Amino acid sequence: AQSVTQLDSQVPVFEEAPVELRCNYSSSVSVYLFWYVQYPNQGLQLLLKYLSGSTLVKGINGFEAEFNKSQTSFHLRKPSVHISDTAEYFCAVSDRNTGGFKTIFGAGTRLFVKA
Amino acid sequence: SQTIHQWPATLVQPVGSPLSLECTVEGTSNPNLYWYRQAAGRGLQLLFYSVGIGQISSEVPQNLSASRPQDRQFILSSKKLLLSDSGFYLCAWKGLWGTNTEAFFGQGTRLTVV
């Protein structure tokens, strides 16, 4: 079964500094990969997704992620964070061989941006 | 455009009481529907999913059940709540195979069992 590991439960960073949130998934079979953001007491909002093609994916709010098949990773990056980026971030994967039907989520990484 | 509604937003229930959380989707047909639970530090746990009316698959044995009485309606229920049922419950939908591959989430229900 698929699993997703987010290597950092919390990431504190100063405003305008770069940030990387790490994500690894368990299988090398064909997958769809996603990053979602969750603000307090709200649902999840899609940041970006990798379906196929270019391994560098750009999303909303200046975020990007790179798919690395050999390392089964999909790390999220932003070159300069803002206070408003403080939120919880979830990496997720679904198996394209079964139509991407079920999405499995990681435990989340709480990003805390300090002034 | 498609929208997903989930209610109530917050709920405080005593142990042993029943539960019914409702989720409806608008603007799409034959969605795949999902219930997730989010507990502190544990990410999102898939509880149930449904590919059609009356078709429910359970991912984790537990005190909860789900039903899909209509194409765009998904209900999460319990006959007797436990303290461990507290958490943030999220409903989500996805489109058909090969399209709309990301999940779209409702705003969630914060359930506190006391």
The largest chain-to-chain contact, stated as pair and per-chain residue counts, equals: A-B, 26 and 26 residues
Terminus-to-terminus distance of chain A = 41 Å
Radius of gyration of chain A: 14 Å
Oligomer: heterodimer
Rounded average pLDDT of chain B? 90
| Shape verdict of chain A | globular
User: Structural class given helices, strands, pairing of chain A?
Assistant: mainly beta
**Using only CA atoms, what is the Rg of chain B?**
14 Å
Structural class by secondary-structure content of chain B: mainly beta
The percent range for helix content of chain B is under 10%
Characterize the largest beta sheet of chain B: strand count, sense, and whether it forms a barrel. 7 strands, mixed
Number of strands of chain A: 12
Strand content of chain B: over 45%
User: What's the count of strands of chain B?
Assistant: 11
Estimate the global geometry of chain B from the Cα principal axes: globular
Q: State the helicity of chain A in percent bands.
A: under 10%
Count of DSSP H/I helices of chain A: 0
How much of the sequence lies in strands of chain A comes to: over 45%
The number of helical runs of chain B is: 0
Average pLDDT figure of chain A = 91
